[in-house]
Amino acid sequence: MIAFLPTMVGSKSKSHSPRNPMHGKTGPRIAVMISIVFIVINAISFCVLSDGHGVTQVHDGIVRVGWPLLIFEEGGFIWRREFYLTAAFVDLVFAACIAVIFHLGWAFLARAGWFRREGV
Questions:
Q1: Predicted confidence (pLDDT) per residue in 22-76, tens digit
Q2: Domain residue ranges of the chain, discontinuous segments joined by +
Q3: CB neighbours of 110 closer than 8 A, spacing ≥ 6?
C-alpha cells in the first residue's frame, strides 16, 4: 500500500480536474434535493388528498399526507390518528430516486455547457 501512495497522491483523475463543475458538490446537493423533493411532494399530497384540500377547519375532515404511499392520516367521522413509518421510508426512497434523476440531468446539462456565462 505504501508503494502505491506516491502515485495515488500525485495522480490527477478526471473527477478532480478544475473543469469538472460537479467536483466536491455532489453529496450536499443531492441531500438538499432529496429534502426539497420530499417536502414538495408531501405538501402537494396534503392539499390534494385531504378533505377541504389543505384547509384544516373542515368538520370531520380527514388530513392525509404522503405520496405514493400514505404516511399520515388524521380525523374522520370516527376520529383516528395513524402514522406509517414504513410508508415514510418508502416515500423517502422514492424522493431520493427522483432527486438523483434530477441531479444526473443537472450534471449532464452542466457538462454540455448550458450553464456557462458568456462574456465573463
A1: 556 667 778 888 899 999 999 999 888 888 776 666 666 788 899 889 999 988 8
A2: 26-112
A3: 21, 22
Rg (Cα) of the chain, in Å, rounded? 22
Enumerate residues 6+ apart whose C-beta is below 8 A from 67.
41, 42, 44, 45, 49, 91
- Provide the strand spans (E) within the chain: 62-65, 72-75, 80-83
Q: Which residues contact 58 (CB under 8 A, 6 or more apart)?
A: 51, 52
Distances (CA, A) of 35 to 3, 49, 58, 86: 43, 21, 29, 18
Reference 86, options 114, 66, 107; nearest CA is 66
